[in-house]
Amino acid sequence: MSSSPRKRPAPDVLVAGLVVAILIALVVAVFAAGWGSSLYPPGAVTAEGREIRGLYDIVFAVAIAIFVLVEGLIVWSVLRYRRRATDTELPVQTHGNNLVEVIWTVIPTAIVLFLFVISWQALNRVDYVSSNPQVRIHAIAAQFAWQFEYLDQNGNKVATQLTPAYDADKNVGGMAVPVGKRIQVTLDSPDVIHAFYVPRFLFKRDVVPGQTNIFEFTVDEKEAGQVFRGQCAELCGAGHASMLFSVIALAPADYDAWLKALIEKANATPAPAPSGPILEETAKNVTFGTAALEVPADTAFSIAFDNQDAAAISHDIDIRDSNGTVVENQEPIAGGTKTNYVYKPLPAGEYTFFCSIHSNMTGTLTVK
Length: 368
What we know:
Elements: H1 11-32, H2 47-80, H3 98-126, E1 135-142, E2 145-151, E3 157-161, E4 175-178, E5 182-188, E6 194-198, E7 203-207, E8 213-218, E9 227-232, E10 244-250, H4 252-267, E11 278-283, E12 292-295, E13 301-307, E14 318-320, E15 326-328, E16 337-343, E17 349-354, E18 362-367
Parallel strand pairs: 1-5, 4-10, 11-13, 12-18
Antiparallel strand pairs: 1-2, 2-3, 5-8, 6-7, 6-9, 9-10, 13-16, 14-15, 14-17, 17-18
């Protein structure tokens, strides 16, 4: 009793299957070689960032599956229904197929509904704001610097951090937060639209004038000691590029010590001006009151600086020489406050004093 010969797959089907296999292999090779890293967000360092990363993974997997399926069907259709030399007439034309139309309507609808549900759930978890967060920070974005106010549980300010970026040598700057604790950040702007964006948080929130936006996050405990880059992600003016900040993740004990030191610094009595020339300078409407200052050469001096702008507008007075090298770098002060800046002796020459936050605020310092 002989068996009937097994049918071989049609050549067109084999070619289409081979093309699909090649597409899948290319996708795998791209990610195995690391070339696909630009298609993926950076690794999340917060609980909320992992929610976004998980959502991204699902959407990306669905997109790849659809891409491979559609491209495979296109190749199969081109091969299966191409015109051959023996074809002299048009093939039978199909003007409708209820089953196919139902399939291509139901499946995309189901995919969209699925993505809608998981997106809704993830975004609700990311946007959740608790009534009793463990740490409260008020972030103020103003042209062109960030100001971070640390609040107690009643919402009262206890300390302010003005330095826009982290300086590891001085152990100052940035926005320090404890790992493993829920941080609530309120965002305000006194001027134009800014945006709070930390790439490793996988999160961006606009800072809109006249509207307080709130969000929360929890940094993973394993990230203690790490510093994460942050920036304004909305074009806010000529000094937009300088609106950088850092998020310093600290162990809870280290954070408590850091905040205590910041509070003590805020409450400390300002040091008296040293002996030597004392100059006076003001800032109002983002402009220095005096555009030209003069001091003797090789003599220490100080500037009694009065920032008369609004509280959210910080200024400082730094000095650079004729070559553009910054020779004195002072910490900014908030609007409505005063300080005595102390400068070391400078050799004779022409210098420029400027605000590091507002590029239009410059003046001439003559040392002779």
